[in-house]
UniProtKB/TrEMBL annotation:
The active site is at E141 (proton donor/acceptor), E239 (proton donor/acceptor). This is Putative hydroxypyruvate isomerase. It holds the Pfam family AP_endonuc_2. Catalyzes the reversible isomerization between hydroxypyruvate and 2-hydroxy-3-oxopropanoate (also termed tartronate semialdehyde). One of its GO terms (biological process) is glyoxylate metabolic process. Gene3D superfamilies: Divalent-metal-dependent TIM barrel enzymes (3.20.20.150).
């Protein structure tokens, strides 16, 4: 299996996301994924990525300031133009760093109406059509309500139903096992059943979102092997909060019989 560092969660010992590219390389990673690098220009991000000599697998859609809870407007009626502008900006960054996947975040909503679902699906159709012209995959991710209360998309069935209806090779599921366990459980069957729609996978232990070998609900030695046996061979993002020093915590990879 191939593991990539999530720079929003890992190497936070460094204050700058730009510096984390080099730290990931130093730790042995060949690839990274990131949130949208708010506050940094395309040139700055491209330079940091190229100087580190790592591949960029995925970048999140420009969402606003995530520290303020701004997680996108994809499901917000009346903000279609803002969504389209955010998508265009993110594509520019993705192309600059060679990222072939964009996580299209849905946003947080106080109340949800049928109009939100219509807006969400229409925006995803727009995104899939645009991403097709760019050779980039869009992915959508159900996020559990414990970690991010009021996040719009927290239902795997609804996510898959939309993916089926839009029927695009450029819109798939981002399957974070951390969220899957919180939302649905029954990991063995759900992973196998969802796999035909999966475009990207992430992992973290439940409930504390630390390394896969820390105490928690998931037996990751089994789950990672099950993911592989279910036909997935692409990158797995390590979207966990290191319990201590990021680099020291990576010992689980070798303990599980893998390499970076």
């Amino acid at each position: 299996m191939k593991f990539c560092a999530n720079l929003a969660f890992m190497f936070t010992e460094s204050a700058s996301i730009l510096e984390r590219y080099a730290l990931a390389k130093d730790a042995g990673f060949k690839a990274v994924e990131t949130g949208f690098p708010l506050g940094y220009s395309i040139e700055q991000v491209k330079h940091a990525k190229e100087a580190a000599g790592v591949e960029q697998v995925l970048i999140n859609l420009k969402t606003g300031d995530v520290t303020k809870g701004e997680l996108g407007v994809t499901a917000v009626p009346g903000k279609e133009t803002e969504f389209q502008e955010n998508l265009r900006t993110t594509i520019e960054y993705a192309k600059a760093v060679g990222a072939r996947k964009i996580h299209i975040m849905a946003g947080k909503l106080e109340t949800v109406s049928p109009q939100n679902w219509t807006t969400y699906e229409n925006n995803l159709k727009y995104a899939a059509d645009v991403l097709k012209t760019q050779g980039i995959l869009g992915v959508i991710e159900p996020i559990n309500q414990h970690s991010v209360p009021k996040y719009f998309l927290s239902d795997y069935k609804k996510a898959v139903d939309i993916i089926k209806r839009l029927d695009s090779d450029h819109l798939k599921l981002q399957l974070d096992i951390f969220h899957l366990q919180h939302i649905s459980g029954d990991l063995s069957h759900n992973i196998q059943n969802l796999m035909p729609y999966v475009g990207h996978i992430q992992i973290a232990q439940v409930p504390n979102r630390n390394e896969p070998d820390t105490a928690g609900e998931i037996n990751y030695q089994y789950i990672i092997e099950h993911i592989q046996n279910s036909g997935y061979s692409d990158w797995i993002g390590l979207e966990y909060k290191p319990a201590g020093n990021t680099k020291n915590g990576l010992k689980w990879i070798q303990d599980f019989g893998y390499n970076l």
